[in-house]
Amino acid sequence: MAVVLGWPGRMVDPAFGIDERLVVHGDLKVVLHHPLAPQATLMSRPRVKGVIDKGPGGAAIIQSTRELIGEDGAPVATVDSSTFARKHGGFGGKATQTAEPHAIPERAPDEVCDLPTPPNLALIYRLNGDENPLHADPQRAKAAGFERPILHGAASFGIAARAILRTCAEVPAGAAAKHRGAILAPGVSRRHDPHRDVARGRARLVPVPGRRPQRHRA
Predict the structure, then answer these.
(1) What SS3 class is residue 75?
(2) Catalytic residue numbers, as ranges
(3) Which CATH superfamily, name and number, covers 22-89?
(4) Average pLDDT along the chain, 218 residues, taken 10 residues at a time
(5) Fewest CB atoms within 10 A around its CB: which of 119, 130, 144, 209?
């Protein structure tokens, strides 16, 4: 839920100088400082904290953060995310590299969790307010270089979080969850390979080959 609360929306204003057809989700990190209440009023404080320049012909990676603040002024959650704007690099930015993700251990995972996703999952996720046509319009998807509409990165984050909760017990307040996006299509089963670790948990999200789309209840 914290992923979508207080989301400032897509950068579609021409003043940003971004071609929205070339924009996809990069990565996402959520830190819960307190459990989310069933009902509450929160204040969102979003800002852009940096832009990574991957050079001419490369991408511009727009790094954003937003704080969700409760009525008492205490932080409830912090959401860090990035937007991957393809072919927008080469603007002379000082930062050119992103931090490397934590490595997945080479050993076999401690758990394996397969979750099917319905073909209309991207259309359902649009109800949260992200109406990027890349995730719904086949023609827009092809114009952006994809065979068909792809799933929202934040929706993939939600699937991964569900699998981790199912296999690795409850997540306490103050815990962080991070997801580095990959291009995934709705209607494909995801396999999650969690590795338990006393310092940090790690999980990999991959499509399951040959698994047909299935209908399922959440």
Answers:
(1) strand
(2) 130, 135
(3) Hotdog Thioesterase (3.10.129.10)
(4) 86 91 88 89 95 94 95 94 93 86 76 83 90 92 90 87 74 51 56 54 59 37
(5) 209
